[in-house]
Amino acid sequence: MAAAAAAVLVSALLPASVQAGESRAVPGVVAIDAGTGAVRQIAALDGFLTATSTAAPEKIARGYLAAHRAVFGAAAAGLAGLRLRKDYVDIEGTHHLSFTQNVGGVEVVGSGVKVHVTGDGRIISVDGSPLAGLPASLRTATFTDGGPGRQVVFGTADGPRPAREVIDMDEGYLSVVDAADGTLLSRRSLVANDHATTWENYPGAPSGGTQHTVDLGRWLPAGSPTLTGNAAHVYSDVNDDDAAQESEEVRPGATTSFDFPFTDFSAQVGAPCSAQRQCSWNPAVPNSWQVNRAQNATQLFAYLNTWHDHLNAAPIGFTRQAGNFEAVDGDAVDGQAMDGADTADGLPDADHDNNANMTTGPDGTAPRMQMYLFQRSASVLAGNSGDAADIVFHEYTHGLSERLVVDAAGNGTMTGDQARAMGEAWGDWYGLDYLVDKGYEQDDTIDGDVREGDYILNGRAVRSEPIDCPVGSTEPVCAGTPAAGAGGYTYGDYGRIRSAGGPEIHADGEIWAQTLWDLRTTIGSWKARSLVTRAMELAPADPSYLDMRNAILLADRVVDHGRGQDRIWQVFAARGMGVNAGTDGATDTSPAEDFTVPPKV
Known about the structure:
Blueprint: H1 3-13, H2 16-19, E1 29-32, E2 39-43, H3 57-67, E3 83-89, E4 95-100, E5 102-103, E6 106-107, E7 113-117, E8 123-128, E9 150-156, E10 159-168, E11 173-178, E12 184-189, E13 191-194, E14 232-236, H4 266-269, H5 293-312, E15 333-337, E16 356-359, E17 368-371, H6 389-404, H7 417-437, H8 505-523, H9 525-538, H10 545-559, H11 565-574
Parallel strand pairs: 14-15, 15-17
Antiparallel strand pairs: 1-2, 2-8, 3-4, 4-7, 5-6, 7-8, 9-10, 10-11, 11-12, 13-16, 16-17
Helix pairs in contact: 5-6, 6-7, 7-8, 8-9, 8-11, 9-10, 10-11
Domain FTP: 81-129
Organism: Paractinoplanes durhamensis
Subcellular location: Secreted
């Protein structure tokens, strides 16, 4: 929608009490879903959509939707029948209300509306893509193969159809199939794969690289026979069958504790292993990984619980109500250490090395984290991804974004190129922010010393540039790539960072990661964590970089009363995401950059 039209429509959506005396420097957002033609998001970037109210949040939300039915076009007819699925209150007191559409009491997948209401009753934004023309009921349909899944309604070009939604954690997909004939209607991958690493940092690290005694009492029940607690169950799934055999569980040692020393293989393996970056197995010797099997599973268990607690606490607030991972809700992390280590006669096969992944389903479904061994090469250590804090934290953070950036039905929506690239960037940013804040990694005055993948890649970053490369940097490590240029990346570099050319989510995610590091530098770590997380909750489905920029601006209105607006705009404008930047959505791999901030009024 054109900026002028958006300005008029946003103005019409604001009550007179809010409009009075205002001159709007930023027109706001009225985005339209290209697929459905319905409103995708409504927000006023320099204020709120409504004035304060003492009414209940659901009443405020329904009242706003009813009062502005004309804005939703043909989809407005179905708004009266919306069902409140969830009223989640974040740690700042904001209510995130998710309303689903239903046909005959059966949920319509992929549609609905989310309304975000502050603690004092002001609407921050509205997002979703409600379907038009839904009937009161559908003919009864039965599943032809008697398979698992829940009954849903799926909107097609020919109208809504009875369907079922199936979660396959083994294959890592959430699928919707036609109830009558089993035709696949949609499929979404739940898996996030990566090639990164690091002990409270990693074994041998200058800070946080030495084993020390840790009390597991806060994470394990007294006398627990396995590594099974409220936040995670960890075992060594060396045959990769996604089940914990007796031989794969890790049990307390002779002292009834999980005290397993790490054996350094550096002398056996040789370079690039060293005292500063120690190797954990010998790829030339089958089953050598067994020496550190119990140690690594225990290390992974400690990492998973550490990260659960960090994300749960303020200012991030990834709590049970937000959809975090806990056994009490049936979705503690299924942590698979050394996954597939014994798939090739005592060694990992080609599908089970040099990687790690996190598969995250909807709330109530246990996510699965698979951590692999790394094979030795000229620049890669014979290490274990479960020994590396930055890899574990990165993978876990995929679960954070999958649970917070959701549609009205609670399903993750990170599907477009830009959205998935931000998923990779968040994984890097949250983990490195923590490690620097704790003093395990250093961020000094010289550009380019905060790197993802420092341990496994023997001091080389897994990304093309460190996360702390500002725009215009002349440091050699911030030299970038030929197509993108040097000195920190901007929005116009999207699709040009990968050396081979073309878009790639890990490479293009560097733009977003570096931007968030600039934000952290500008407003501080604590406030940046708060705004970045609250923005996930406020984001529309399948967000672009500009959608998420807007969500951070909206979050600042809630968290800091809008005091950070100018500084936030300056950060994003410096990275090419200024007020006149443009994109066709999350699938756009050639966005238009702009370096201007909104005019002063």
